[in-house]
Amino acid sequence: MRIGFVKDWRLIASIAAAHVLLFVTFLDQDIFWYIYTAANLFFMSISIINEKIDDQQKTNSFMAYGLLSGAVLYALFAAGFWVISMTPLSVSAHVSAIYAQFTPQFVWHYIVLVLIFIPGEELFWRGFVQKRLSHYMNEWASALIASALFGSVFLYSGQWIWMMAAFCAGLFWGGLYIWKKSIPMLIISHLIFDLLLIVFLPFG
């Protein structure tokens, strides 16, 4: 593993900026949707400027894999939620609190979720951070570190379960990215997962 990434100022500065933006995002529930929209527009801009968007799958292929993988990830999360709910951990209370505070309420919330939040997260965390890290280490190490960084920005939510969920989902999508090298596929996968988790089949 090379440590040249510590000299990659664009990568380091972008991750630092992500932490600042997410800190501000979670300062006040009333501004969450506005600031996180701005944050993901920043993520998209940084990614597009600095890295080519990988798209090595045909449309039919990335649509099929995206739909299936999004459903599979939701099923894994549902199983994990059920198992953890059998333990003394008060996971249901944490999940309910997240839904109560951050579930979309207005039409524009759903629009930015689909068109900005999801593409922004995949372009930045997989298409920029993970890809950039892979220049300095093997692909699986880059996926692990990128996933940990993805989870770390949700520290400011005050919900450990959100951090763990982001880390686990990041590993899943990071592995898909290594396998298929398709950001559009990851965006479809993320979209299906979020729609199931937030809109159609929420937990709790």
From TrEMBL:
Q: What's one GO MF term for it? A: endopeptidase activity
InterPro entries per UniProt: Rce1/LyrA-like_dom
What are the entry keywords?
Hydrolase, Membrane, Protease, Transmembrane, Transmembrane helix
Q: Which residues cross the membrane?
A: 9-27, 33-50, 62-86, 106-125, 137-154, 160-179, 186-203
Entry's Gene Ontology BP terms: CAAX-box protein maturation; proteolysis
Pfam families, per the entry: Rce1-like
Where does the CAAX prenyl protease 2/Lysostaphin resistance protein A-like domain start and stop, copy by copy? 105-195
At the top level, the lineage of the source is Bacteria
According to UniProt, the name of this protein is CAAX protease family protein
